[in-house]
Specification:
The protein starts with a helix and ends with a strand. It is α+β, with helices and mostly antiparallel strands. The N terminus is likely disordered. It has 17 helices and 23 strands. A seven-stranded mixed β-sheet has the order 8-9-10-1-11-21-12. Strands 16-20-13-19-17-18 form a six-stranded mixed β-sheet. It is globular and about 70 Å long. Helix 8 runs antiparallel to helix 12 and helix 16 runs antiparallel to helix 17. It folds into three domains: 144 residues, 3-Layer(aba) Sandwich (D-Maltodextrin-Binding Protein, domain 2), CATH 3.40.190; 145 residues, Dipeptide-binding Protein, domain 1, CATH 3.90.76; 228 residues, Dipeptide-binding Protein, Domain 3 (Dipeptide-binding Protein, domain 3), CATH 3.10.105.
Length: 559
């Protein structure tokens, strides 16, 4: 459906449409080999869940892989139910709690982080007890030369010298270079340091898309996956050290179209899904309910693909996006109030210019909010004038491209992308929607080949990680605007291990980013899932981990 018609966008005016956008669609076919989840399992006891397999319909991840080192933070959710971390995240507030390590401490001289490992934790498929050798193997696999996962791989390579075994239940992660984001990277909060079984790898070798992933320790284990279709997990057949999921099986089912996911939810083919706000009322009217993540961290904004630094120099200076007047014009062309109503039912909270710091962060500067309307606010005339000042007009239009692709973090991202093109065309920009394949995008990003592009991002990552990936030259990738001034401040943040000093450094980084228009800010969003209350009683999960869909084992069944 054309987004302009669907949401009544005419020119640059966006009107919210909250009624059902489509007539009742037909039920989608289940994935091949996957049982329908709409009826209780045969022979289920009265206390058993209503379905044997809980099915969640989601947008497909941009990258599918059974090799953890090749799955980025924003797509790690596809395989995360299998794995655990040395440091876990509390589902109701996002704070650190013991995971596969019962305790950890930084050595007084800052040379290493000591971890005491939990005893008795079993790997899936009878691969034995987790010990120090598995932590060593996991770090080595993460940092292999062929690893492509991005930020966490580069952070590990640059920050970790080695993992040294003290004994079977104790390791020291030796620090090569000080990095204040290292604990986040090691923890569940960021993803990328999943603990895998060395014995599993030694027996089965490197997995591919037709062989199982390396065994983990999570409450769910691998059952099957069909590339382009789904990923199925099953509850471990023994008493797990931390929790026993209510549902014997769980499936992520790839379903691109929101209308198809709605139809599947209404017919009971799936039991939970992410829906755009215009389709949620139809689901709610049919008796479904919305469950919201507990920690505000999900946000969406536009990353500016230009201005990449290698060896202290810009790799390309020809992009018009180098001009701060152009970046400012693109931001001021957007009516955020209308977009919020149209696509997020007014639930979005404006990002006040700095996309990595919410208002309750100690580094947040109230002046960003106070000056937002003047600096970033919707003003078509001002946007046109800024472009004219930068040398662009009817006879020499600004040319750029925005990627068109779905996001797993929230539904309706492609509608947002199309609406942005209309706002920019209204100020005279010659903007095209690029349908470049996501794998090709990632390759081009690593090679710094895309220098005049815009990309709508969805992330729940902690402040340092996403900033490092999208806006610094620290890891050598090219996924967003970079600047020597912000690079220097970011380096100070990474070097400062005393978190009590981070507030002022974050403020400095935010001040510089705000002034430079390093991104085009949009909204903080609630992490929402629509569930069938006939099947699901509740789900407590943070929604603050990049990729959003975590703590699957916490989904409670109606019995």
């Amino acid at each position: 459906m054309n987004v302009m018609k669907r949401f009544g966008i005419s020119g640059i005016a966006v009107a919210a449409v909250l009624s059902a956008a489509c007539s009742a669609p037909q039920a989608a076919n289940p994935a091949p080999g996957a049982p329908s989840g709409g009826t209780p399992a045969q022979g289920a006891a009265p206390s058993a869940p209503k379905v044997n397999r809980l099915i969640m319909g989601v947008e497909a991840p941009s990258t599918e892989s059974n090799q953890l080192r090749n799955i980025g933070q924003t797509t790690m959710w596809q395989i995360a139910p299998m794995y655990e971390y040395l440091i876990a995240v509390k589902p109701d507030d996002g704070s650190f709690i013991p995971g596969l390590a019962t305790e950890w401490s930084v050595k007084p001289d800052g040379s290493a982080i000591n971890f005491k490992l939990r005893k008795g934790v079993q790997f899936h498929k009878d691969f034995g007890e987790m010990t120090a050798k598995d932590v060593v193997f996991s770090e080595q696999d993460l940092t292999r030369d062929d690893a492509t996962a991005g930020y966490q791989v580069q952070l590990a390579k640059q920050s970790i010298a080695s993992v040294d075994v003290v004994n079977d239940y104790e390791v020291n992660i030796v620090i090569k270079q000080k990095n204040s984001d290292l604990l986040n990277m090691i923890s569940q909060a960021q993803g990328g340091f999943e603990i895998m079984s060395k014995a599993s790898f030694d027996k089965n070798g490197d997995p591919n898309m037709t062989t199982p992933p390396v065994a983990g320790t999570g409450p769910y284990q691998y059952k099957s996956r069909a590339q382009g279709q789904n990923f199925v997990f099953e509850r471990v057949p023994y008493k797990h050290w931390s929790t026993t999921p209510d549902f014997p099986e769980f499936e992520f089912r790839w379903m691109k179209e929101a209308s198809t996911r709605l139809a599947a939810l209404l017919t009971g083919e799936i039991h939970m899904t992410s829906l755009p706000n215009d389709l949620q009322p139809q689901a709610i009217t049919a008796g479904n309910k919305i469950v919201v993540g507990k920690v505000k961290a999900l946000r969406t904004y536009v990353s500016i693909w230009c201005c990449f630094i290698k060896g202290g120099q810009y790799t390309d200076t020809s992009s018009p996006l180098h001009d701060v007047r152009v970046r400012t014009a693109l931001s001021k062309a957007i009516d955020r109030t209308a977009m919020n109503k149209a696509f997020f039912a007014g639930k979005g909270e404006t990002i006040w210019g700095v996309n990595f710091l919410p208002e309750n962060h100690p580094g947040f500067n109230p002046q960003w909010k106070a000056n937002f309307e003047k600096e970033y606010g919707y003003d078509v005339a001002a946007a046109k004038q800024l472009l004219a000042d930068a040398g662009f007009g009817p006879n020499n239009p600004l040319k750029a491209s925005i990627f068109s692709h779905p996001l797993a973090q929230y539904a309706g991202a492609q509608d947002v992308q199309e609406a942005l093109t209309q706002y920019w065309r209204a100020i005279g920009v010659n903007i095209e929607l690029s349908t470049m394949d996501q794998t090709a995008m990632q390759t081009a990003s690593r090679e710094c080949k895309l220098t005049n592009n815009l990309d709508v991002i969805g992330t729940s990552g902690a402040p340092l990680g996403p900033y490092g990936y999208y806006n610094s030259s620290f890891i050598g990738n090219c996924g967003g605007y970079q600047n020597a001034e912000t690079d220097a401040i970011y380096r100070k943040l990474l070097d400062e291990l005393d978190v009590s000093k981070h507030g002022s450094l974050f403020k400095d980084l935010g001040d510089a980013s705000y002034k430079l228009h390093a991104n085009i800010p949009l909204f903080w969003l609630p992490a929402e899932v629509v569930v069938s209350p006939k099947v699901i009683a509740d789900w407590v999960w943070p929604g603050s981990i990049s990729g959003t869909w975590t703590h699957i084992e916490n989904i409670k069944a109606v019995k």
